[in-house]
Amino acid sequence: MLSPLRLLLLVGIAWWIARRMGWRRLRLLCAAIATVLVVLTTPLGANALVRVQEARAPAPSGGAGAPPQAVVVLSGGLVARPRGERDYAALGLASIQRLLAAVALQRGLGPVPLAVVGTSDRGVADSVILANLARDLGADASLLQVETASLNTWQNAQASAALAPALPRRIWLVTSSLHMARSLVAFRAAGFDACSYPAQPRYYAPDNLGYLLPTGSATMKAEDALHELVGELAYRLRAWRAAHD
């Protein structure tokens, strides 16, 4: 629903209604919004929006206090229905990049738990496939924890808090740079002192004149960024309500 093209269609309908009704100010507002949406279909606009959202993810830092004592990595989804628990070709690029970052981070920390979280309801849990990949990459099986039921980021956080044995409250949270700000809201609402460890940046700087022309990939990138911005606002409201119940 947050695709710039879908939004552009809705704005176009609103502009037509405003024209029929003689509402000049609404026509001008629709024209301004349409201009922004058209820009978002270009690499220039999409990457600018991505850069704004990714810049809001803190750089890796343990901050003040004791170092984080666990690593939690969120699945980034599948691209196909897996044929088994080691069908790594079914993993999306985001899932693989996050897992690689998490395994490398855990190796640098020593013997700390690595929790792999999330699924996409395609027969075999994403987290099971990712955990097997982590083992094949040399991760200590005795330190792996796998959560197989959560279907979104809010559920990821709540399910992580309910894992047994319980994770330490101070954790490294590994997910995509674009997804990090929303994830931190969810995990902090679940009671974690989550430290950001962003992976998979998606911003690309201008490099040719094609950066100014609309493309399908730019439209999809802008949609992902809008999804994160709106999703984060919804999570902040949800966390505020939970804190005041």
Kindly describe this structure:
- The protein contains 8 helices and 5 strands, in the order αααβαβαβαβαβα.
- A 5-stranded parallel β-sheet has the order 3-2-1-4-5, with helices on both faces.
- It is 51% helix and 11% strand.
- It is an alpha/beta fold.
Q: How many domains make up the 3D coordinates? A: 2
- Specify the number of helices: 8
- The backbone outline, from C-alpha atoms, is elongated
**Strand content of the residues, in percent?**
5-15%
Question: Stretches where pLDDT falls below 50 for ≥5 residues?
Answer: none
How many runs of DSSP E, i.e. beta strands?
5
Mean pLDDT: 93
Name the features.
245 residues, Rossmann fold, 2 domains, 8 helices, 51% helix
Q: How would you summarize this macromolecular structure in one to three sentences?
A:
The protein has 245 residues and is α/β, with parallel strands linked by helices.
What topology does this entry show?
Elements: H1 4-21, H2 24-40, H3 43-54, E1 71-74, H4 93-109, E2 114-117, H5 126-136, E3 144-147, H6 153-161, E4 170-176, H7 177-189, E5 193-199, H8 216-244
Parallel strand pairs: 1-2, 1-4, 2-3, 4-5
